[in-house]
Design brief:
It contains 14 helices and no strands. By secondary structure, it is an all-alpha fold.
């Protein structure tokens, strides 16, 4: 394998590892601070980092940033949907295990193609729905614990986060496809919007944030700089240098890293039911991913116009 490709693969695996570890880090931070305060700190530090990065690029290139109204409008809307995802996801991980959260959120992989219609393609093949059904069974087993029962609050919130996250990803594709938009500009707007949305909660709990210890602030900075800014920009950089299929395969290892972090660092355990669910979830998401990737590789067939009544009468003659 060429050295450049190895480097690109390593970056994508690092992004997946960082995202997988974010559930355990977020869970640890929410044990000390309220969820909305954690989200404000994450967004505010991210916004500051994006602003500094943008200023450094402007200075290096000696030109104005060239912001467009489309970037502001799109970034503002995506900032709201992204904030909704993180609210559900962070509240969910606060009430369930990091391993469960990382596995359930991977449902986004099979939910997104159901909502994404930017390619103008016909419906997905039956095999994809088989993979989606396998993932649904996996969620049931993951939430079973020691026996079958209704999903816990945390599992239900993470499941809702997966649905909203799929809608967010589909919206990103619909709003940015074929349009020249700077990823750093979009990220900066999204983080600024999130900072404003969660500012009231931070004001109410300002004393708790101010008295947070160094370990908690380290977790907040990690969530902001690595799980938000670095992961998004590194993903964009790497995808431009490899195939979409290879990128999705490597990024799809995120739930594996989430389980590894939860069990290896967080001391969590998976029951027999949950272990079976984890295996089915990983298998289902990879299966659905491969089916959707093959479906996307086939060029869409042009829609044939329906014959008019006059044409039908002419043919009858």
């Amino acid at each position: 394998m060429p050295l450049a490709r190895r480097g690109t693969d390593a970056v994508l695996l690092l992004v997946a590892l960082v995202w997988g570890s974010s559930y355990l880090v977020a869970k640890s931070a929410t044990d000390v601070l309220p969820v909305l305060v954690v989200l404000f700190a994450r967004y505010a530090v991210s916004a500051l980092a994006c602003a500094l990065a943008g200023g450094a690029l402007v200075t290096a290139r000696r030109r104005r940033p060239g912001w467009t109204r489309a970037e502001l409008r799109t970034g503002g809307l995506l900032g709201v949907t992204q904030a909704a995802v993180l609210v559900l996801e962070t509240y969910g991980v606060a009430h369930t295990s990091a391993a469960h959260a990382g596995l359930i959120i991977s449902l986004t992989i099979v939910l997104t193609p159901l909502l994404d219609r930017t390619g103008g393609r016909p419906g997905l093949p039956p095999a994809f729905f088989g993979a989606a059904g396998l993932c649904v069974v996996a969620v049931g087993l993951l939430t079973a614990g020691a026996g079958l029962h209704a999903p816990r609050l945390g599992d239900a919130l993470v499941l809702a986060a997966a649905v909203v996250r799929a809608g967010h990803v589909a919206l990103v594709g619909r709003l940015t496809a074929g349009r020249p938009m700077d990823p750093l500009h979009l990220t900066t707007v999204q983080t600024a919007v999130g900072s404003v949305l969660f500012l009231p909660a931070a004001v109410v709990h300002a004393s708790a944030l101010a008295h947070a210890d160094a370990a908690t602030w380290g977790q907040l900075v990690y969530l902001a700089l690595f799980c938000s800014v670095f992961a998004f920009l590194a993903q964009t950089w790497a995808v431009q240098r490899t195939s979409a299929s290879r990128a999705s395969l490597l990024l799809g290892t995120e739930p594996v890293w989430a389980v590894a972090a939860g069990i290896g660092l967080g001391g969590e355990r998976l029951t027999l039911w949950a272990s079976l669910g984890a295996v089915l979830m990983v298998a289902g998401t990879y299966w659905g991913q491969s089916v959707e990737r093959a479906h996307r590789a086939v060029p869409p067939q042009p829609v044939q116009p329906r014959p008019t009544a006059g044409a039908l009468r002419f043919r009858a003659r």
